[in-house]
Amino acid sequence: MLEQMAGRSKAPESTAAAALGSFGRYAGPATLILSSLAGGSKHGYALTKDVESMAGVRLAPGTLYEALARLEGQGLIEALASEDRRRPYRLTAAGAAALRAHLDAQRQVADEGLRRLDAGLAPT
């Protein structure tokens, strides 16, 4: 849809972004989790606290662990070896590419919305 708005054909990055787009209602949590893991590996509780600090959003445990399973299943994150019951995860190269493509697409939407507001195209 964004490519259509911009009058462009699909770029290779859009394939990576499609990984997040396939999450439907979990795209938000997936974006938050990948963004958190971009700063380094974390286990579930640390992810929850980091997302809350970064975005002001508290992910419920069910939402967090379902999103982690989906992200791991798509190869966007991977579990690391653990010495205790906490299981740390890290971003994969595919996850970093998907996150970058998704955030770039979101930036285009945000930039266009702001441009329209500045131009006075928004209803009053």
CATH architecture: Orthogonal Bundle
Mean pLDDT: 85
CATH-derived topology: Arc Repressor Mutant, subunit A
Identify the CATH class.
Answer: Mainly Alpha
Largest sheet composition: 2 strands, antiparallel
The low-confidence parts are 1-12
Overall SS class: mainly alpha
Number of strands: 2
What does this protein structure show overall?
The structure is a single chain. This protein is mainly alpha-helical and 124 residues long. The protein has one domain (2-118): Arc Repressor Mutant, subunit A (Orthogonal Bundle), CATH 1.10.10.10. The protein contains six helices and two strands. The protein has helices at 2-6, 12-21, 27-37, 44-55, 61-73, 93-118, and strands at 77-79, 89-91.
Keywords:
124 residues, mainly alpha, Arc Repressor Mutant, subunit A, 6 helices, 5% strand
Helix/strand layout:
Blueprint: H1 2-6, H2 12-21, H3 27-37, H4 44-55, H5 61-73, E1 77-79, E2 89-91, H6 93-118
Antiparallel strand pairs: 1-2
Please sum up the structure shown:
With 124 residues, the protein is mainly α. It is built from 6 helices and 2 strands, in the order αααααββα. The protein has a two-stranded antiparallel ribbon with strand order 1-2.
